[in-house]
Amino acid sequence: MSRRLTSTPRADGFHMPAEWEPHVGCWMLWPERSDNWRDGAKPAQHAFAAVAKAITQGEPVSVCVSPGQYLVARQMLDPAIRLVEMTNNDSWIRDCGPTFLINEKGQVRGVDWKFNAWGGLDDGLYFPWDQDDLVGEKVIELERVDRYAPDFILEGGSVDVDGEGAVLVTEECLLNHDRNPDLTRGQIEANLRDYLGCDTVLWLKAGVYRDETKGHIDNFCRFVAPGEVVLTWTEDRNDPQYAISAEALARLGQMRDARGRKLVVHKLHQPAPVLISAEEAAGVAPVEGTLPRMVGDRLAASYVNFYIGNGVVVMPAFDDPMDAEAQATLGDLFPTRQIIAVPGREILLGGGNIHCITQQQPSAFTHKSHAGLQSAGS
Ligand code: KQY
Predict the structure, then answer these.
(1) C-alpha 356 to ligand 1 mean position (Å)
(2) How much distance in Å is there from the Cα of 363 to the middle of ligand 1?
(3) Structural domain containing residue 195
(4) For atom 8 of ligand 1, which residue has the closest CA?
């Protein structure tokens, strides 16, 4: 059974662990809408299947799929992957799914945020989003964990935690008029503290150039260890990304995390600009209310959009000379994990990448704080 709780995770001793902590599994949603994914979503489905297969090397994967796509997905996905029938509007479970929390006693709970498709009626990316808004609650119920459901619009890709009290966010996203226009910066910070169990909110100004989420941190700057972050980077001063990343680097240099550490910043050089081709644009069915895909539009390609799974890091590749450098950097940062590069262009064409289509479920019983109890046999 899953109860709706009216207290807060912070008051109850729960917090969001870092992504590199152990997982019991990973959740995904199956893409199908032809107004966002080209060619009836077939190329994207192959890309999602490759991501799911890579993650299964270290943890079980559950893919939620609409009734009409069940047999298609079953045939395309590795047999080890669990399929769960679930109505949806699109496939970005990082953003519409739950955020799982843990406590020191080996318990897990979920936060079921409100979701408005990255901007609601004002400038959301599609309409409607009502089924996506139910995904968090449904996943939490399937896992039979208790649920917090704050009156707060938040996408999982707009926050990144170190599991030790710090959360990274951007002003471009969290303070955007299209998310929680009635809340002040202070009230938004209070919600992050209360529902992620964090102490320190670290604000960057903006995210990746032309990111349609309007500033998601998970495409721009992420924790890779306590006190260490990766930042998307370019040396090309004529690229609009340069000023954004340089400004972030300066801010990061002034910050201290919740434990008082200065941050070490690792640069991940972006690939050459990825532009939508004529063939790609022609493959998307334009629908009123869905963000159109126009020839020549630049996509927010970034290597920062990787998933940290048990034993693996799954990163997007763009068929670019920088792919190998990014893979080597991530290998240095995660020396105990296999770095698996999966083609990311088809996912990027839909507006995000590997991190955006995945949602980890942490394992409280293997959490470091619980290790003593475990070895004592309880
Ligand atoms: O987290 C993301 N990057 C999701 C982007 C949504 C795109 C919808 N077209």
Answers:
(1) 7
(2) 27
(3) 4-367
(4) 351
